[in-house]
């Protein structure tokens, strides 16, 4: 199905409240015609959900064999109360979507991996990513182990749409959430990951876990995202996990109080005109931002906002190129209005001549 890239409408909601005609009661109020008409202008959206049969979020998009594949998380309503740790994001499987091109018919390939089929995981299959190497596809995903600690697992398939078979244990040395795997021009693969608050990244220092560590205070240095190069077999880290330095325009590390620009979650790395673009979500201020560096390890210097806040608390994305055009995949809550029942979308991404990215308004406003 083709979806328009811009949508707006005005709905006229007419409510009719007819009172019972209670003859002989003398109740004049009950005899009044209480018909009312209220004009409600619906919100505008830059683009429409890719699918409406399920709730999807956190889209990791890739072009494989000339076709776009989207690897989202699969939102469901399981009755878990909402909290700041994201307990209500209680995802239990992954569905994979694909399309020939943006605007073309979208295929839902069904369940590609279930929580029950991951030997080490106990709950919460959060945002995944996929890479192709060694003539197979590798699905990377975060989940909590039996102790409630997030790690990153890997599953493999001969087909981009799956189904995928999970390894028996998570990647050694992995932790936190939101894996993004980037292939550099020399064929080396790097995994970026991490998320604070419910993603537990604030509990990891020098790659050691401390369950007592709380979120950073405002004047403390902000928590940094992580990176590690993958081994050729794509199943483990080839080196110790490193911090990714994210700098402001003065060349300084962020403090936690700089929450309109500091890292929260949702790493994504792509390359454009020889530069490395590290993009991410600021979480509690709901921006998708980007920074640019000269190396896959960084440091990355902040350059601006890619996407202004969407409807819903979270913001998560990916960036791809197909046939000379660049696209931003993202999500909001247009279908449900609930922050834990989201829907994946896509819109075109534009660069300025200097390599900066034009800011996108998800409401479609110029």
Task: Describe the protein in words.
The chain has 366 residues and is mainly β. The protein is 0% helix and 38% strand. It has no helices and 24 strands. A five-stranded mixed β-sheet has the order 17-21-20-19-18, with no helix packed on it. A hairpin with a 2-residue loop joins strand 13 and strand 14. It is globular and about 45 Å long. The two termini are 26 Å apart.
Shape: globular
Separation, N- and C-terminal Cα atoms: 26 Å
Helix content: under 10%
Helix/strand class: mainly beta
Order of adjacent strands in the largest pleated sheet: 17-21-20-19-18
- Element order: H for helix, E for strand: EEEEEEEEEEEEEEEEEEEEEEEE
The overall pLDDT average reads 90
Question: What does the radius of gyration come to?
Answer: 23 Å
Summed up, the helix count is 0
Outline the low-pLDDT stretches. Answer: 1-40
Largest sheet: 5 strands, mixed
Secondary structure tally: strands: 24
Task: State the assembly state of the protein chains.
Answer: single chain
Give the topology, please.
Elements: E1 10-15, E2 36-41, E3 55-64, E4 67-75, E5 93-99, E6 107-114, E7 129-133, E8 136-144, E9 150-157, E10 165-166, E11 180-183, E12 189-193, E13 204-205, E14 208-209, E15 226-229, E16 242-243, E17 246-247, E18 265-272, E19 275-281, E20 288-293, E21 300-307, E22 318-322, E23 325-332, E24 343-349
Parallel strand pairs: 17-21
Antiparallel strand pairs: 1-2, 3-4, 4-5, 5-6, 7-8, 8-9, 9-10, 11-12, 12-15, 13-14, 15-16, 18-19, 19-20, 20-21, 22-23, 23-24
């Amino acid at each position: 199905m083709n979806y328009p890239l811009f949508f707006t409408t005005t709905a006229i909601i007419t409510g009719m409240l007819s009172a019972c005609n209670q003859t002989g009661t003398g109740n004049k109020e009950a005899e009044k015609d209480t018909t009312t008409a209220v004009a409600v202008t619906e919100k505008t959206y830059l683009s429409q959900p890719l699918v409406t049969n399920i709730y999807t979020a956190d889209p990791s998009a890739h072009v494989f064999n000339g076709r776009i594949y989207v690897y989202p998380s699969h939102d469901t309503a399981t009755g878990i109360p909402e909290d700041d740790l994201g307990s209500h994001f209680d995802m239990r499987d992954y569905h994979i979507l694909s399309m020939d091109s943006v605007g073309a018919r979208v295929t839902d390939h069904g369940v590609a991996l279930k929580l029950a089929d991951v030997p080490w995981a106990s709950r919460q299959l959060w945002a995944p990513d996929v890479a192709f190497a060694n003539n197979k596809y590798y699905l990377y995903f975060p989940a909590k182990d039996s102790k409630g600690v997030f790690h990153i697992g890997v599953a493999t398939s001969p087909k981009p749409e799956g189904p995928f078979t999970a390894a028996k244990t998570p990647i050694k040395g992995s932790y936190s959430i939101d894996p993004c795997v980037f292939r550099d021009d020399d064929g080396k693969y790097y995994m970026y990951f991490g998320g604070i608050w419910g993603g537990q990244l604030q509990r990891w220092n020098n790659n050691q876990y401390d369950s007592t560590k709380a979120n950073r205070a405002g004047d403390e240095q902000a928590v940094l995202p992580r990176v590690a190069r993958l081994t050729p077999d794509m199943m483990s880290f080839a080196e110790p996990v490193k911090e990714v330095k994210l700098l402001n325009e003065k060349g300084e590390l962020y403090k936690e109080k700089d929450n309109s620009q500091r890292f929260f979650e949702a790493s994504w790395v792509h390359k454009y005109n020889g530069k490395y673009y590290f993009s991410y979500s600021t979480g509690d201020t709901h921006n998708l931002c980007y920074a640019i560096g000269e190396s896959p390890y960084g440091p990355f210097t902040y350059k601006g906002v890619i996407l202004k806040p969407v409807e819903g608390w979270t913001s998560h994305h990916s960036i791809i190129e197909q046939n000379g055009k660049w696209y931003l995949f993202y999500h909001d809550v247009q279908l449900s209005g609930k922050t834990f029942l989201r829907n994946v979308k896509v819109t075109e991404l534009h660069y300025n001549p200097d390599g900066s990215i034009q800011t996108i308004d998800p409401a479609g406003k110029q």
